């Protein structure tokens, strides 16, 4: 199955924009119209949705999402925010199922571990790093289909 990355990101951006309307998050996304995830739509919604929801939750005012082909078989999806970020020594911890670093915010502590497991199931990977916006950057490497 192949899934349009742009259509999924557009759907998520519209939904999250409504959910976080009171926060005034500027959610900027970009993906080529001919970029396709080699997998099920629901799985891409889960992967991108968890990353984008976290960025909207923890970002102050900006979330940037970029997706592009990095090889004939692989795409990169990055989600960045301008929040407080996550110290490097705590990044592995948030990937463990059920781990929540901030108990004051809503959530189950499952999103990041689900993203990592799902990315690995597709032969991909998830990594966390500092964002150029000042917060956290989530990078997903996933299989892509031909246009």
List the helices and strands and how they pair.
Elements: E1 2-4, H1 5-19, E2 26-31, E3 36-38, H2 41-58, E4 62-71, E5 74-81, H3 91-94, H4 111-121, E6 125-130, E7 136-145
Parallel strand pairs: 2-4
Antiparallel strand pairs: 1-3, 3-7, 4-5, 5-7, 6-7
Helix pairs in contact: 1-2, 2-4
How does this model look, in words?
- The protein is α+β, with helices and mostly antiparallel strands.
- The protein contains four helices and seven strands.
- It has helices spanning 5-19, 41-58, 91-94, 111-121; strands at 2-4, 26-31, 36-38, 62-71, 74-81, 125-130, 136-145.
- Strands 1, 2, 3, 4, 5, 6 and 7 form a seven-stranded mixed beta sheet that branches.
- A hairpin with a 5-residue loop joins strand 6 and strand 7 (136-145).
- Helix 1 packs parallel to helix 2 (41-58) and helix 2 (41-58) packs antiparallel against helix 4.
- The protein starts with a strand and ends with a strand.
Global Rg: 14 Å
Per DSSP E runs of 2 or more residues, the count of β-strands stands at 7
Which regions have little confidence, pLDDT < 50, spanning 5+ residues? 100-109
| Overall average pLDDT | 89
C-alpha termini separation? 12 Å
């Amino acid at each position: 199955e192949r899934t349009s990355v742009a259509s999924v990101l557009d759907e998520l951006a519209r939904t999250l924009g409504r959910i976080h309307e009171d926060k005034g998050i500027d959610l900027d996304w970009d993906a080529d119209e001919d970029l396709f995830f080699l997998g099920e739509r629901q799985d891409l919604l889960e992967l991108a949705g968890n990353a984008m929801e976290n960025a909207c939750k923890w970002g102050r005012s900006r979330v940037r999402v970029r997706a592009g082909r990095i090889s004939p078989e692989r795409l990169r999806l990055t989600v960045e925010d301008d929040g407080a970020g996550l110290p490097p020594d705590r990044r592995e911890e948030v990937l463990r199922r059920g781990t929540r670093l901030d108990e004051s915010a809503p959530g189950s502590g499952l999103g990041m571990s689900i993203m990592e497991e799902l990315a690995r199931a597709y032969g991909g990977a998830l990594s966390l790093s500092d964002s150029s916006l000042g917060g956290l950057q989530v990078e997903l490497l996933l299989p892509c289909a031909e246009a």
